[in-house]
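Quick question: what would this complex look like in 3D?
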Amino acid sequence: MIKNLCVIGVGLIGGSLARGLRKQQWCQSIIGIDANQHAIDEALALGVIDTGYTSIDQCALVPDVIVIAVPVLKVASVFAQLKPWANQCAAMTDVCSTKENIINDYKQVFGTQESTCFVPGHPIAGRERSGVAAAMDDLYQQRKVILTPMDNSRESSINLITEMWQQVGAHVEHLNPHEHDKILAATSHLPHALAFSLVHCLSTQSHTDEIFRYAAGGFADFTRIASSDPIVWREICLANRKELLEALEHFDTSLHRLRDSLNAGDGDAIEEIFTQAKAARDRYTNS
Amino acid sequence: MIKNLCVIGVGLIGGSLARGLRKQQWCQSIIGIDANQHAIDEALALGVIDTGYTSIDQCALVPDVIVIAVPVLKVASVFAQLKPWANQCAAMTDVCSTKENIINDYKQVFGTQESTCFVPGHPIAGRERSGVAAAMDDLYQQRKVILTPMDNSRESSINLITEMWQQVGAHVEHLNPHEHDKILAATSHLPHALAFSLVHCLSTQSHTDEIFRYAAGGFADFTRIASSDPIVWREICLANRKELLEALEHFDTSLHRLRDSLNAGDGDAIEEIFTQAKAARDRYTNS
């Protein structure tokens, strides 16, 4: 148990963690910081946080644990504002979907230190709804959280962040940041790019109304992630641009193979692609 | 209520219809025909059908209503076998995901008649599981069924097929076959092609294990349709090749726009695509 938890960015991800940790009574007090006064008011009204500020310098005490839960491209400016507290807290983490750029941002602000309380992290969880009102205390139950500790991340900080995520039911694993970004580009950023592109493509066609009118359950599932927050995803795509572009290129190769087979009327080649895909999915997923 | 219903192809789609109609007691007896003896045995054991044959010529009586529920490229040979019964039954329909090719197949076998009992149809429903064991009596509840009647389809046959689908809770609508194929290429065949291609692409990469290991709920939703039956989907893609290729080309344009924006680091352009997609999806779907 810790004394003060500070969540910077009181939205779905930060709010769900705050709710989960409160339920477990892991912290005595939760401080929320969000540039958006409305988010603070809502989080206070919902009991997600105990105290709220619209900027970091309004917070007089140094929290034990800091969780940075702002969109990925805002993290650098948060680091700059956190500089006065450098390494005074027990542990600090983030929740961003990309890790190499966050670590670069960190180094730019804090330079090279002998040891740091910062332990970069990424909970593999979410909903297509956003905002603190959508926060759920069980969002991280049975979900994976990937930590990508830096060479100089303190052991005690890693342990504390691990404990924090385990409190809300998550399974904590470690990856190096480059591996993380490569894997997430494939399993998360690429599917989002495809879903957004598909719905965008359909929405620009002359018979859009009919198209959506006859869409079935499979379509709703397939495109659910295209209802995600456009700004959050703009930033993730930009932050992981290199890996995402590579993943898009791989995908393009597969799609062209299918298109060529279809063009040639080559049913066996089509079936081979589909069979391999189904086998892979059935092997790895249970839903 | 009718006397004899004959379902040709006792799988998920035909089996679910049989189950639903039996529950509603719409037919006195259900005959199942399937080249696969195992499917017949299973359907008999599950009480989905009352009598089963492995070929149409084994069935001595002419049924009142025939539902052709075989994969799309097998329909032509079913038509050929049904020729002896031509227009002796009250109504005949199919359940295929493409309609222009089915109508062409029909005309090739039956030629041009003054009137016909055939009413082409397509229930917009399914599961990624296949086979009669996966059949559910409520599969069509609240689902759309699109009929694409031919110019010479008998009014009484259209009414009977409409009544049949309404019995299992479906909403029946009419489209012309070309419209149907164009719309379904966009909402169903294209998403399947993308999902299969994505999983295929990921399954051919060197770090496939890690990729699937860290896949989240969004990925499972997005790729669920890639667990569909490869043979069924091979046939649908081939049957609707022209429309699907056109849909793929549209998609390619959208995806390239996103890729170019990403390459240029143009966040505003990316956000515009995502925002338009989210707005379209949120407007048209509720899930």
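Answer marked as accepted. The longest strand of chain B covers residues 2-8.
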